[in-house]
């Protein structure tokens, strides 16, 4: 297969982890006789520094032309505490999601048996955890109208949803549940928010077309508890943008390391794959960042194009590195392996 | 001391747990020679059923005239899944908070040593956890304008904050930090939300008047992870209404039981005390609901009026019940004690 892949390394540890994912994709090309073309572009803080824009047109066009985007990470603390900053790295990511129409962020949460002892949670609590979060990614309070009054004393953000925005991701989530354990949990705050009540109405209606799937409703505050108290109760979680941001990062602690979790963002015509961890600037260029999440993002990319055997080869190589202890220090404080060595090991084992 | 206490049992298990708190307050009256006057009123689903209004005027007036309000719980599932319901129990609670000006919800999160094994988290993760959440309670997306278009296909909620709303709770939180371990963590989403950027600006400015307090900023998605990964890093957490709802319920799992956690809601002229658990309708009238959170709410009420010795007597009696295993089944599945017996035991030991 020929694939055109846009590489967006971004900020912080983004470039170094993405490089390992590319190594693995190259190993897949060789082993399975595919041809992938990689084209790289800047995004985020580095794009602001170089071009004054967190998502330059050249980058956006490259992504639009590509079959898929492989993303590193975004964000730089120098922008975070400056309430007056006019451009921010995150705007690049948000605009990219919007422009590519990536309305569904899909995050699998699974426990790696060989790392079960790394979890802050007790083994009996997390045993059997295997769920996927469908987070709406191009609507809600992230993209609603923002306002700051003239003297800078009143600020607001609008959380708005339309039936159509809810409906398209709901269908994806129901379909996913059908292929899994037939359970869908809608997380909302319908006892307070008008937008949540619309979610409940639309999702309930759509549920009628998926009679095999058991639909359950959960308030977001309760969900924040249940994900820790009893994570194995979940199969597919469906939720809006802001709740999804919080709940999915919370879910990422279950497995013991955020350095292992990948995500896919899907739209009608585009797809992007990225680790769920951030740019982790403190670890930048120290060869300590965990490349597994980025490598598993590449595996999700392969699956997206139906290359299941190839994806499985990547996953098995990752499992091997975990079992053999060829891991970065975040997973084993005594480990001597760096980002590059872990990437090499996984690539060689494909 | 003479105190006028408004009792609002509310829905579900509210009445039965509140009754235990009152038992304990009566024991305090006797032992310490105080005189408390209790006046009861309906709120929530029961108030809708009886008077068609989740917060009848008589209830609101009773609360306004009282020195403090002791609250049970609110909510009934028959309203949750009806997107067309015009009145909802929760509206009663929200209106009460707004009308009494209860802008600060204060939730202490602490681990009871005798219950450390009940936590879903490993002991080494939660050891030393002792933080307090200051959640803004009368602003933000809970109270901003709601909108549903005519054909019911687009819904929105506005999250709005003013400098003054942020400032008054920020001062409370900084003062609390000064009396504790001098650390304040502001939880927001300033990389995305205009309102969060205002929070950051205002809180940073106020921080200059509290030079001893170390001010730290954390994005809410990261906070959702950190609360589980490393809860002992926190001293005082300050956040807006919606994030506070999620984060504080999440924090409540640390101690192993939400049935143990109390909260205070404070304003200029009023104060309300309530367990953080909900109405738990499945457990209603079965004599299995844990009354400790409600009893500890009463202890917070006593502290609010400077009755520290009295509050301590309540807390010590609670500790005794936990140590002796006089607890409801949620804490010990083999326990034979019911709600009433636990309440009696605590009251007798005051
Ligand atoms: C960087 C930030 C804007 C982003 C988000 O909030 O969506 C990130 O936290 C994520 O979840 O991908
Ligand atoms: C019942 C509900 C409206 C309420 C809230 O969201 O504030 C509750 O969850 C709480 O935290 O007190």
UniProtKB/TrEMBL annotation, chains A, B:
UniProt EC number: 1.1.1.85
Any GO MF annotation of the entry: 3-isopropylmalate dehydrogenase activity
Site (Important for catalysis): 142, 189
InterPro entries: IsoCit/isopropylmalate_DH_CS, IsoPropMal-DH-like_dom, Isopropylmalate_DH
Gene3D superfamilies reported for this sequence: Isopropylmalate Dehydrogenase
UniProt remark on cofactor binding: Binds 1 Mg(2+) or Mn(2+) ion per subunit.
The reaction(s) this protein catalyses: (2R,3S)-3-isopropylmalate + NAD(+) = 4-methyl-2-oxopentanoate + CO2 + NADH
Record's keyword terms, sorted: Amino-acid biosynthesis, Branched-chain amino acid biosynthesis, Cytoplasm, Leucine biosynthesis, Magnesium, Manganese, Metal-binding, NAD, Oxidoreductase
Enzyme class: oxidoreductase
Predominant subcellular localization, coarse grouping: cytoplasm
Residues that coordinate or bind substrate: 97, 107, 135, 221
Pathway recorded for this protein: Amino-acid biosynthesis; L-leucine biosynthesis; L-leucine from 3-methyl-2-oxobutanoate: step 3/4
Domain (Isopropylmalate dehydrogenase-like) ranges: 4-346
Assigned protein family: Belongs to the isocitrate and isopropylmalate dehydrogenases family. LeuB type 1 subfamily.
Protein name (record): 3-isopropylmalate dehydrogenase
Organism: Flagellimonas algicola
